[in-house]
Write a structure and sequence with these properties.
With 245 residues, the chain is mainly α. The protein has a domain at 194-243. The protein contains five helices and two strands. The protein has a two-stranded antiparallel ribbon with strand order 1-2. The chain is rod-shaped and about 195 Å long. The termini are far apart. Mean pLDDT is 80; it is low at 1-7 and 19-31. F-type ATPases have 2 components, CF(1) - the catalytic core - and CF(0) - the membrane proton channel. CF(1) and CF(0) have multiple subunits. Pfam families: Mt_ATP-synt_B. Belongs to the eukaryotic ATPase B chain family. Its main location: mitochondrion.
Length: 245
């Protein structure tokens, strides 16, 4: 009977674990898991027992009322009552069960820790295998996020580079415009200076020609008598000035 109960408990735990793993995997695939509201199931440790099968809670229940020896006294008294009243008859199956119990107890105490250690290692290996895939998936997603952030940063850098190129082109256009404006200013100033210098030269030539024409005509108009009279008048003026001084 105990073996059937143990098998049913093991099957129930296995089915519950499978359901939890399937539900957890489905939720992980569907989206981001909410660790706060839906934490991942953690493999629980079995409760403490005494004498190999009696739960520790039973002893704690008697301890507050009967002390430390209460649970043992109750167990021995109950067994004595059952045996004395022949409620539990010690027939041949009783001794068979007692023998099986002793063999199971010996096997449990002798090989139980080793088997338990081996089974714990297997469970840890299976659990680590499940977690390894999940952790690797998380790492891949985190790496993908980092790569996406790097790509966005590079895209922003390209935008800045394009903006800098546009500004550089605008500066080049401005420099070309100013250079052309300077060339136009230089050409216009050179032509204006040429026109001014041409006007000045023409004016000087005209003045010189006018002066030469006036001097020539005046010289031609003076007769020798007028020249002699003008010379005598000048000498007389000089003499008068000399007499005054």
């Amino acid at each position: 009977m105990l073996s059937r109960i143990a098998l049913r408990s093991a099957a129930a735990r296995q089915s519950a674990t499978t359901a939890l793993v399937a539900r957890g995997s489905a939720s992980d695939v569907a989206g981001v898991r909410d660790e706060k509201n839906f934490p991942r199931p953690v493999r629980g440790e079995p409760g403490k027992v005494r004498l190999g099968f009696v739960p520790e809670e039973w002893f704690q229940f008697f301890h507050s009322k009967t002390g430390v020896t209460g649970p043992y006294t109750f167990g021995v008294g109950l067994a004595t009552y059952l045996f004395s009243k022949e409620i539990y008859v010690m027939e041949h199956e009783y001794y068979t069960g007692l023998s099986i119990f002793l063999m199971v107890y010996y096997a449990t105490t002798k090989f139980g820790p080793k088997i338990a250690t081996w089974l714990d290692k297997e469970v840890d290996a299976v659990e680590s295998g499940w977690n390894e895939g999940r952790v690797q998936n998380i790492k891949d997603l985190e790496q993908a996020i980092e790569d996406e952030k790097t790509s966005q940063w590079r895209a922003q850098g390209q935008e800045l580079l394009i903006q800098a190129k546009k500004e550089n082109v605008l500066l080049q256009l401005e420099a070309a415009y100013r250079e052309r404006m300077m060339n136009a200013y230089t050409e216009v100033k050179r032509r204006l200076d040429y026109q001014l210098e041409k006007s000045n030269v023409e004016r000087r030539l005209a003045q010189k020609a006018m002066v030469d024409w006036v001097v020539t005509n005046v010289t031609k108009a003076i007769t020798p008598d007028q020249e002699k009279q003008a010379l005598d008048r000048c000498i007389a003026d000089l003499s008068a000035l000399a007499a005054k001084h």
